[in-house]
Design brief:
alpha+beta
Amino acid sequence: MFIFEAPKDAGHFYNYVNTKFMLNDENVYDDIPFLIEGENYIFAFYEIDILSKVLNLAPAIFRATLNAALDNEGDDNNVDSEDMSRTDNWYIAIEVYSDKEKDCLHQDSFSREPVLNYLRTLKKEYLTTHNYNETVFKN
């Protein structure tokens, strides 16, 4: 799999692929054909939401410091659920295969390097393009 963090909202990569490859909302996640040096390849992608929890210790440290300054022995020095924040991180995972290879990204694949170069270019274009209709003219 070729995986990268997607700073854009969910659905943006779908819209990008749908527009770039002119799929008209049909089979956008699966079996997207592309060419590298005259060879046919196919990719499928997944948008993955990975939650990350961040512990904010500032409120707990503030309470502990305040209690110590006031000589208060409060039990309020524990970390509350309010001290936790959740953020969603979106990732795009892409797999590539062909008639000749089941996994073109496998370490032993003869097409691994050209496919990785293609996917890096695709990723860069996606991340830097805001109007996906522009990608149609680049094909």
